[in-house]
Every structure is written in structure tokens, then in C-alpha cells.
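Table 4 source record.
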Amino acid sequence: MLQAHWISKYLGVVVIACTLTACTAYKDPRRSLPEGSKVYRMGYLHGCYSGLNEFNPDLAYYRKDRKLFNSDEQYHDGWEIGFNACYERERQFPTMVGGNKRH
């Protein structure tokens, strides 16, 4: 009986430790937008969705305001950084949605 109690406690500690480790290792770039102007953050978010789409089309729609991308440096920079951040995040921590992994 005493052994079952210790196993139960040990298992609880392991589950909590694993959960905390996973939470600190993974940060969803879509939920933590960077500092910057509204147009920069919009570019970042559009780029992020596009990066996810590039890795796995089941995750998000490709988004890019071509007019802003070609004319506004902040939107352009935000889009590029968002694309790379979310593409890399998905490459390192694949979301288990659909079966269309291409990379």
C-alpha cells in the first residue's frame, strides 16, 4: 500500500514536470505578437499564417497583402519575420493536424 502511494506521488511529479517543460519550450508566435506598429504586427500575423500554410496547408490560409508587402517596409519586414518564426516553430514542434506534412 505504501509503495502504491509513492508511485502515485512520483507519477504526479513527473506529469507536472513534463507539462511545465512543454509549456516553456513551446511559444506560439501567433499568440505573442512582437512590439511594433499596427501594420508591422499585421504583416507579422499574415506572414505567420503563411509560414504555417507553407509547412502544412491544413493549419492556416496563406495571407499576404501584396500591395502593402511591396509598398510598406514595416508590413514587409513583419511578414518576413512572421513567416520565418511560424514556419520554424511548426518545423520544430509539428502540430498534429491533417496528414499533409511536406517538409
